[in-house]
C-alpha cells in the first residue's frame, strides 16, 4: 500500500465512538450497528471523523505501528465497511 493512499470515514457525522484503555466501541447510527475495535483502530476512526487523511498522516498517530501493520489494519477496516479509500 502506498503512503499516499487517502482514506475517509463514510457518513462521519453519524458515527460515535467510546474509548476505554483496552479498546473502543463504534456506533454507526445509519446502520444502527456497533463494532468493537482495538485502541489503534479507534484512533484511526477518530482521526477520520475530522476529515479524509492519507496513510502517511495516519502513520503519524501516537500509537501507530510499522507501515505494514498499519496497512493491514486499514485494509481490515475497509473490508468491514468502516472506512474507505478515497478516489
Structure description:
With 87 residues, this protein is an alpha+beta fold. It has a single domain (6-85), classed as Outer Surface Protein A, domain 3 (Alpha-Beta Complex). It has three helices and six strands, in the order ββββαβααβ. The model has no long low-confidence stretch (mean pLDDT 92).
List segments where confidence is low: pLDDT < 50 over at least 5 consecutive residues: none
Architecture (CATH level 2) name: Alpha-Beta Complex
Percent helix, as a range, is 25-40%
Tally of individual helices: 3
The helix-and-strand class reads alpha+beta
Q: Please, what is the average pLDDT?
A: 92
Multimerization state: single chain
The neighbouring-strand order within the major sheet is 5-1-6
User: From the alpha-carbon coordinates, what is the Rg to the nearest angstrom?
Assistant: 12 Å
How many DSSP E strands? 6
Note the main sheet.
3 strands, antiparallel
Q: SSE string, helix = H, strand = E? A: EEEEHEHHE
Q: Given this structure, which CATH class is correct? A: Alpha Beta
- The CATH topology comes to Outer Surface Protein A, domain 3
In whole angstroms, the N-to-C terminal distance is 14 Å
| Percentage of residues in DSSP E strands | 25-35%
Number of domains: 1
Note the overall shape.
globular
Amino acid at each position: 500500500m502506498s503512503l499516499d493512499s487517502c482514506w475517509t470515514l463514510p457518513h462521519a457525522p453519524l458515527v460515535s465512538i467510546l474509548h476505554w484503555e483496552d479498546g473502543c466501541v463504534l456506533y454507526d447510527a445509519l446502520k444502527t450497528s456497533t463494532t468493537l475495535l482495538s485502541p489503534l483502530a479507534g484512533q484511526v476512526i477518530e482521526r477520520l471523523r475530522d476529515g479524509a487523511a492519507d496513510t502517511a498522516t495516519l502513520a503519524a498517530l501516537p500509537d501507530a505501528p510499522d507501515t505494514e501493520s498499519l496497512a493491514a489494519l486499514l485494509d481490515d477496516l475497509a473490508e468491514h465497511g468502516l472506512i474507505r479509500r478515497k478516489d
